[in-house]
UniProtKB/TrEMBL annotation:
Carboxylesterase type B domain sequence ranges: 1-427
Protein name in the entry: Carboxylesterase type B domain-containing protein
Organism in which the protein naturally occurs: Clastoptera arizonana (Arizona spittle bug)
Record SUPFAM superfamilies: alpha/beta-Hydrolases
InterPro entries registered for this protein in UniProt: AB_hydrolase_fold, CarbesteraseB, Type-B_Carboxylest/Lipase
One Pfam family this sequence matches: COesterase
Length: 453
């Protein structure tokens, strides 16, 4: 099992402080936790042949090749490699399922709270180049010729370049200045992601899911800045703020029109206030996670097992995202499912599960390991009550035509159907990513290429 870490393309890294092996070591698996380059060093792109981009993803390909060549020396099986990840790592897992560079290097994947079609997964055409030029100007390397620009950047101390990148990042609204995966031109040697690979269907066995209040961290971020002040800005200036907060300027041909429809769907004609906390969280969760997830599920022809994680335990990431201690979302938020797979010592240095949370952790590890071992999280039926192994049994069945998914609650596992049917229908009626896809011609070449030397 190879884990690609979370961290918004800029943070974390795999280490024992975050992704220790303790919970998996009672199982008959080999756990691999590689690192890759991050932020400007992992995802910068001039969108031409000088720095095509996706260096971090190519690092991961190298790690997977290392696993193929060497896992036998750790009693692992190179023909039974499962890749998995959360958030950014979940998106990269799904991107590997689409990339020709990764073909043959793994058997199946698990994506937790993120897929390839998520708005934060792919950067808009021209945006990465503009970011690169902006940061280059900060270190006196601005040059119209991309080769000369990059040559200059290579003379800059790495710590200084990192500092200027972070200063630029925090000078921009929302997450707009995040370097992230980019679509490469078809004829770039060793391209990881092209238009054809992005739009291709996949046929892997796949397990994917989300937490009920997944993108609650957006609301938590508002709380840090003053919730009433921020929501007043959203309410009065939605035509400006909406396209920014939903990253529509990069991906949609009609960002203002799409934003207006989103406001109408989630808030009707009501003002956007803190009384709309659940609607705000659902809007972000549907946009960034669940709608793209369902879209990618429908384009995967392998058996796909889908879950919704709804257990709120003693430990939660909600307060780390800025939610006041006297408030609760009443359900699991982003990364809460990860708490039960890895110790996350850096976040929870004194973590010690109570009996209820320990049973959830044992359940989660067993489902993940079963999928890695058998390609099925429940090769045999399991108890429908995580707290009572002698309860009636249940089997997790694939998504299929009924849009079936496993709801994981504190005291109950249950199979549901028609996952977020109405929300999915709404989002797919909008022009959310048409601009991103229209920048390439039918052969996969960028229209109006940036100048290259």
């Amino acid at each position: 099992m190879v884990y690609f870490h979370e961290g918004s393309w800029i943070l974390n890294g795999n280490s024992k402080q975050l992704h220790g092996p303790e919970y998996f070591m009672d199982e008959d698996i080999v756990l691999v936790v590689p690192n890759n380059r991050l932020h400007i060093f992992g995802y910068m792109s001039t969108e031409d042949y000088v720095v095509p981009g996706n260096m971090a993803l190519k690092d991961q390909v190298a790690a997977l090749q290392y696993v193929q060549d060497n896992i036998k020396f750790f009693n692992g099986d190179p023909d039974r490699v499962t890749i998995f990840g959360e958030s950014a790592g979940a998106s990269t897992t799904n991107l590997h399922m689409r990339s020709s560079l990764s073909k043959g290097l793994f058997k199946q994947g698990i994506s937790q709270s993120g897929t390839a079609s998520s708005a934060y997964s792919i950067i808009g055409v021209g945006t990465s180049l503009n970011f690169t030029k902006s940061i280059a100007a900060r270190v006196n390397c601005d040059n119209a010729d991309t080769q000369q620009l990059v040559n200059c950047l290579r003379t800059i101390d790495a710590e200084n370049l990192t500092k200027e990148h972070m200063n630029f990042l925090f000078s921009q609204p929302e997450a707009r200045a995040l370097f992230r995966p980019v679509i490469e031109q078809k004829d770039v040697p060793g391209a990881f992601l092209t238009k054809s690979s992005l739009l291709t269907t996949t046929s892997y066995r796949w397990m994917t899911g989300f937490t009920t209040k997944d993108i609650a961290y957006k609301y938590g971020g508002f709380a840090k800045q003053g919730i009433d002040k921020v929501l007043s800005l959203y309410d009065k200036n939605w035509d400006t703020v909406g396209p920014i907060t939903l990253l529509l300027d990069d991906t949609s041909s009609d960002p203002v029109g799409v934003a207006e429809k989103v406001r109408k769907y989630y808030f009707q004609d009501d003002p956007i206030t803190k009384e709309k906390r659940d609607e705000i969280t659902d809007m972000y969760t549907n946009f960034f996670v669940t709608n793209p997830m369902i879209l990618d599920i429908r384009n995967n022809f392998g058996k796909t097992f889908v879950y919704q994680f709804d257990h709120l335990g003693e430990y939660t990431r909600a307060y780390g995202y800025g939610l006041p201690k006297n408030e609760s979302f009443g359900s699991a938020v982003h990364e809460d499912d990860l708490i039960y797979l890895f110790p996350l010592n850096y976040v929870f240095p004194d973590l010690k599960f109570n009996d209820i949370d320990l049973n959830i952790s044992k359940l989660m590890v067993k489902l993940w390991v079963n999928f890695a071992t058998y390609g099925n999280p429940t090769p045999e039926k399991i108890s429908q009550d995580p707290q009572n192994p002698n309860d009636d049994k249940i089997k997790w069945t694939p998504f299929g035509f009924r849009s079936k998914y496993l709801l994981i609650e504190t005291n109950k596992l249950s199979m549901k159907r028609d996952l977020l049917k109405d929300q999915y229908k709404f989002w797919t009626s909008l022009k959310v990513t048409d601009k991103l896809r229209s920048n390439f011609d039918s052969r996969g070449f960028l229209i109006n290429k940036p100048p290259t030397k």
